[in-house]
Amino acid sequence: MKAVVKFFIYLGLIAVALYTSGCLYDHKPAPGGNGENQHKGVTAPEQPAVLEQKNTDREYVKLNNSTNNNVQPEIKEKTSVVLYFDNGKGSLSAERREIPKVPGIARQTVYELCRGPLNHALFPTLPKNTKLLDINIKDGLCTVNFSRELITAHSGGSGAENLTVYSIVNTLTQFNSVERVQILVEGKKVETIAGHLDVSSPLERDNELISSI
């Protein structure tokens, strides 16, 4: 009887020893996983979230490229006009200039005349700070209205006055729609610009004042 009891006691001790040594518990991690994380329930981030961000970036770049491709520089058509300036020899000389082709081409041309010559061999014919106030063409008559500087800032002298007046008249009569030019100052007719030439009535082109440089 005592032998049987001892046998079961020894058998129990052997079982306890095997259990505490870990032989009865298989804790090997699953293939491809981390044992510690598997035990604690930790999982890796889901891949689809990363793919979604990449798609968003790609669409952003595509949108930007599409927008940039739609931006085109504005290209204005040009036309050539003739401006008449003082050549320093008592007469007028032509300067050909490329300007934007706009509906009011006569107005744009007078603006350029007010700016003065680009050719350094020529000289301005309109006094400094003279401004174009208005221009109108009807039935062959061009009525052109200048600021008071046309008179108040003029240098004087009959020769200079002739060049001022006919630089305006000859420049405007290059257009087929203009046969005569009426000069106004501040909206009113004036007798003269510098006291020598009558400008109270419309004037026609004077080709005799035109010469080469």
Strand content: 15-25%
The level of helicity is: 25-40%
Mean pLDDT: 80
Describe the main β-sheet briefly.
Answer: 4 strands, mixed
Q: Regions with pLDDT < 50 over 5+ consecutive residues? A: 23-69
Give a count of the beta strands, DSSP E runs of length 2 or more: 6
Structural class: alpha+beta
- Series of secondary-structure elements, N-terminal to C-terminal: HHHEEHEEHHEE
Radius of gyration, taken over Cα atoms and rounded to an integer in Å:
48 Å
Q: Which overall shape is indicated by the principal axes computed on the Cα atoms?
A: rod-shaped
Distance between the termini: 146 Å
Number of helices: 6
Can you walk me through this structure?
The protein is an alpha+beta fold and 213 residues long. It has a domain of 128 residues. It has six helices and six strands, in the order αααββαββααββ. The strands form two sheets. Strands 3-4-5-6 form a four-stranded mixed beta sheet. Strand 1 and strand 2 form a beta hairpin. Helix 4 runs antiparallel to helix 6. About 22% of the residues have low confidence.
Summary, kept brief:
The protein has 213 residues and is α+β, with helices and mostly antiparallel strands. Helices cover 37% and strands 18% of the residues.
Secondary-structure map with pairings?
Layout: H1 2-20, H2 35-40, H3 47-70, E1 78-86, E2 92-100, H4 105-115, E3 132-138, E4 141-146, H5 149-152, H6 158-172, E5 180-185, E6 188-189
Parallel strand pairs: 4-5
Antiparallel strand pairs: 1-2, 3-4, 5-6
